[in-house]
């Protein structure tokens, strides 16, 4: 019964975050162009089209939040804080780098990448398409299970999968990542 309540509260939080995100997106001032990683963008002017989606991102979000509960229970019940901390940070290290969705604006110049934060919330990152490495540049091939999303201007790496996720718009996907 408690698991169902947890799932309902997570879904409710997601809906509230989406509503808040839409309101915030409307109030962000326009940006003339994107030259690097930016936190804000004018989403009321350009329309973003979904090009990639990971259906299991909600499950990963729940796991990300459950890791916090597991850490608290471990510390409270046994006092083994070192084990709890290692589990928390190792799970977080990978979960924060999984791409849930990618969108491309209509002008095909800005890629919006959504992934999870440490707390299991959605974080959107806006990247110029010219800064995103193609699969050939990263050394990955389209047949691999896990692919890397890398940028020329940063060493940070995010991960996505065309086998576990789905490419919604193949032409736009190939515009960003090559063929």
UniProtKB/TrEMBL annotation:
<feature type="region of interest" description="Disordered">
    <location>
        <begin position="1"/>
        <end position="28"/>
    </location>
</feature>
<keyword id="KW-0472">Membrane</keyword>
<keyword id="KW-0496">Mitochondrion</keyword>
<dbReference type="InterPro" id="IPR045325">
    <property type="entry name" value="TMEM70/TMEM186/TMEM223"/>
</dbReference>
<feature type="transmembrane region" description="Helical">
    <location>
        <begin position="73"/>
        <end position="95"/>
    </location>
</feature>
<comment type="similarity">
    <text>Belongs to the TMEM186 family.</text>
</comment>
<keyword id="KW-0999">Mitochondrion inner membrane</keyword>
<dbReference type="Pfam" id="PF06979">
    <property type="entry name" value="TMEM70"/>
</dbReference>
<feature type="compositionally biased region" description="Basic and acidic residues">
    <location>
        <begin position="1"/>
        <end position="13"/>
    </location>
</feature>
<keyword id="KW-0812">Transmembrane</keyword>
<keyword id="KW-1133">Transmembrane helix</keyword>
<protein>
    <recommendedName>
        <fullName>Transmembrane protein 186</fullName>
    </recommendedName>
</protein>
<dbReference type="GO" id="GO:0005743">
    <property type="term" value="C:mitochondrial inner membrane"/>
</dbReference>
<dbReference type="InterPro" id="IPR026571">
    <property type="entry name" value="Tmem186"/>
</dbReference>
């Amino acid at each position: 019964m408690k698991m169902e309540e947890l799932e309902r509260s997570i879904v409710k939080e997601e809906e509230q975050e989406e509503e808040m995100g839409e309101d915030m997106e409307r109030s962000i001032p326009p940006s003339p162009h994107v030259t690097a990683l930016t936190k804000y963008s004018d989403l009321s002017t350009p329309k973003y089209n979904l090009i990639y989606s990971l259906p299991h991102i909600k499950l990963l979000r729940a796991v990300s939040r459950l890791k916090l509960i597991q850490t608290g229970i471990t510390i409270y019940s046994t006092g083994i804080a070192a084990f709890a901390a290692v589990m928390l940070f190792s799970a977080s290290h990978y979960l924060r780098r999984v791409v849930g969705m990618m969108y491309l604006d209509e002008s095909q110049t800005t890629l919006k990448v959504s992934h999870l934060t440490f707390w299991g919330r959605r974080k959107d990152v806006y990247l110029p398409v010219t800064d995103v490495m193609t699969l050939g540049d990263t050394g990955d091939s389209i047949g691999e299970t896990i692919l890397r999303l890398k940028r020329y201007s940063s060493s940070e790496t995010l991960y996505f999968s065309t086998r576990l996720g789905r490419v919604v718009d193949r032409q736009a996907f190939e515009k960003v990542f090559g063929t």
